[in-house]
Amino acid sequence: MSDLSDFPITKRWPAQHPDRLQLYSLATPNGVKVSIMLEEIGLPYEAHYVDFGENESHTPEFLSLNPNGKIPAILDPNGPGGKPLPLFESGAILQYLAEKSGKLLPTEPALRYETIQWVHWQMGGVGPMFGQLGFFYKFAGKEYEDKRPLERYRAESKRLLGVLNTRLEGRDWVMGNEYTIADIALLGWVRNLIGFYEARELVDFDSFGNVAKWLDRGLARPAVQRGLAIPVKP
Length: 234
Hints:
Elements: H1 9-12, E1 21-25, H2 31-41, E2 45-49, H3 60-63, E3 73-76, E4 85-88, H4 90-101, H5 109-138, H6 148-167, H7 181-194, H8 209-219, H9 222-227
Parallel strand pairs: 1-2
Antiparallel strand pairs: 1-3, 3-4
Helix pairs in contact: 2-4, 2-7, 5-6, 5-7
């Protein structure tokens, strides 16, 4: 049986199945990337709920795994060389799990890097921009009289949707016929934009027909449906 006792995070979130990959997360757009991925590839794992309301992502135990204090993070007891591997940053985790499982990332070098570039595009553009739009549209940003920040993020979010819409022309998935980690990286954020952030009309989402159809295809996947609800709050 794997021994994870050297990792302080297991003191706060004990592993009931220490031989399985440990996921520390919350069902946010970044968090569900990893839960969806794990459901898609079928790798046994144990999910732990990190309570933002209790500021658990900034506790010493969590920071020992991710010094950036953000979810998701994982602890794989069966990492490279059979040694435990702690890992944070959702994009890095997606790539690691794809390579570990041999799934959802093309092996042909050019296609592999093309897929990874779209994951980085999500991390560098879609996530930050959609998140800022949500802040200035649905949350505290409404208190600002100056509407230029909201307009900036609205315009940039629409531009990014346009990029994705163009990419999906004639394609079922970002990489064509093959569903990959590029789709997993994007699904939660696009879903949140028109769902949780309630910005469908603000960004004229229905004008991006390719994106809308892609989102429907993604959300219809059983593994995606399961992953969107993981981890469950205790």
